[in-house]
Write a structure and sequence with these properties.
Distance between the termini: 81 Å
Helix content: 55-70%
Shape: elongated
Largest sheet: none
Radius of gyration: 49 Å
Strand content: under 5%
Number of strands: 0
Order of helices and strands: HHHHH
Length: 174
């Protein structure tokens, strides 16, 4: 990364200008394509008019144009209606999502004193017949009593202990 060469300001400027030229060309091409599509669509939907000179032919032309207008209005109305239905459905779903996110609070759990057997009976109902006595599964350990522990227990009066220790202190002093 440190050995990577940085672009000079002049090089950056030339690259930006080239990118802008390419983007401008793409935009122009896209606008030309849209214009040709629009002209094609209009030529298909709206053929050129031959304006007749007689009154009856004009009346027929007007009726024909009114029918085409009605058809296009019906299509526009149906597409708008479908669009509004979809938008309303999306809005409702978003509201439901926000409600579910915002209102859900974790309930505080109460402490329950229940044995493992009672808990299993509550969960499984009367199907539960296994007795979970956890203490029965524990190993039995025999306690070995050491002689030193017995001597410590046998020492009865604390005053005797102090007197014995005072004799020891005299031994060290001499």
């Amino acid at each position: 990364m440190a050995t990577e060469k940085r672009l000079s300001a002049r090089r950056k400027h030339t690259l930006k200008s080239c990118m802008l030229v390419v983007a401008n060309n793409l935009l122009e091409a896209e606008s030309q394509v849209k214009a040709t599509e629009r002209e094609k669509f209009l030529a298909e939907k709206c053929p050129p008019l031959d304006v007749p000179y007689s009154r009856e032919e004009l009346m027929e032309l007007c009726k024909k144009l009114h029918q085409e207008i009605n058809i296009s209005e019906e299509e526009r109305y149906s597409t708008e209606f479908k669009l509004n239905m979809v938008l309303n459905e999306v809005r409702d779903l978003n509201i439901k999502i926000m409600d579910l996110r915002g209102k859900f609070k974790r309930p505080r759990l109460k402490k329950v004193r229940m044995s493992a057997d009672a808990m299993l009976k509550a969960l499984l109902g009367s199907k539960h017949t296994v007795n979970m006595d956890l203490r029965a599964n524990l190993k039995q350990v025999k306690k070995e009593v050491k002689e030193e522990d017995k001597q410590l227990r046998d020492v009865g009066d604390w005053r005797k202990n102090i007197e014995d220790k005072s004799d020891r202190k005299k031994m060290f002093d001499s």
